[in-house]
Amino acid sequence: MTAVLHVLPYLVAAWVFLAGAYGLATSRNLIHAVGCLSVCQAATYVLLLAVGYRDGATAPVFSDMAPGTRPVVDPVVQALALTDVVVGATVTALLLALVVQVAKRHGTVDPDELTELRG
Amino acid sequence: MNPRTRLWLVATGGAGLAALLVAACLRLPDFGGDRHPYGDRAVRASLERHVANTVASVNFDQRAFDTLGELTILFAAVLGCMVLLRQTRDEHRAPPEPADVALPVRRYALLVLPVALLTGLYVVAHGQLSPGGGFQGGVVAATALHLLYLGADYRALERVRPIGPYEAGDALATSAYLVTGVAGLIGGSAFLANTLLPYGMFNTLASGGTVPLLNAAVGMEVACAVVVLLAGFLDQAVEIVEEGEDGERDDDGHDHEEPGK
């Protein structure tokens, strides 16, 4: 049982990533596809935070706790997750802006109907 | 490619990827383990420089150069969105209609707006002390402004956030981050090195050397960027209409010329 618990968070991350990838591949709507990409990205948050976790540890903030009194989780991966969130949000915004333009120029947001390039 | 073939292709590729991911997961260090060499060193470096929030220390001191890259991505994305969401030649702006808002919604939004704005600024200001920082606080502050759109209407929102100053603020904040970095270079050490200012007293607002400065620059940039991004999308939804779509928006029937262009 403990052996499963030791890898379960990583497996959850892999599952979330694959669910997002499946959604991306079968998507019939570009807005839905952008959402699926966000799901894929959410898998990286789970993975990063799982890598940094330490049993019985608290947040790496020492404003209300003397240093060394309690174990803290890995702050490096937390900072990476923060970077990840910001980049994910900007990419989502940029992609949604593209979808707005696609919908205006082509009158559809179904990727299967966007077969030809038009100016 | 027909949907059936595609589904088979996805299933095959997905199964292969799943197998590889599971194999990789089994070889990772155990979840919750006690060995975090980088984390321990980051905590030590953060305490040496009197920064109580280690995540802020990692972002604005130890990995400050990476955060510059992140800011650049944000800046470029805002620039890209502005280009993509601009008003094109076959579109024009219709002034937004005043909208009726239910009284409880209006009261609640106007009550919460100053509180939310203050919370955002607080989270930015205490970035190096408590959980939060420029990224989080900037988003809270920018979102707070948009409560005006919920509580009043789009014209009220446009009055409190003219886009020009926010675009300038976005660029200025990015430049401020760069200038702080160059100051470290001129001050005799390296680009973005936190050696210029005294580290101050642990757990006070002025502690941490350049960390509060970079944190504030990031807070300003993120707040401005979110305002500008949301303005781009809201303009598309509320104001910009294609030629010949007047009838849907205006009951009085007269044409609205594009103002000042």
TrEMBL record, chain B:
Family: Belongs to the CPA3 antiporters (TC 2.A.63) subunit B family.
Species of origin: Streptomyces griseicoloratus
Membrane topology: Multi-pass membrane protein
Keyword Secreted in record: no
Membrane-crossing residue ranges in chain numbering: 67-85, 105-125, 131-150, 171-193, 213-234
Entry's localization field: Cell membrane
GO cellular component: plasma membrane
Name of this protein: Sodium:proton antiporter
Domain (Na+/H+ antiporter MnhB subunit-related protein) ranges: 106-227
Protein keywords: Cell membrane, Membrane, Transmembrane, Transmembrane helix
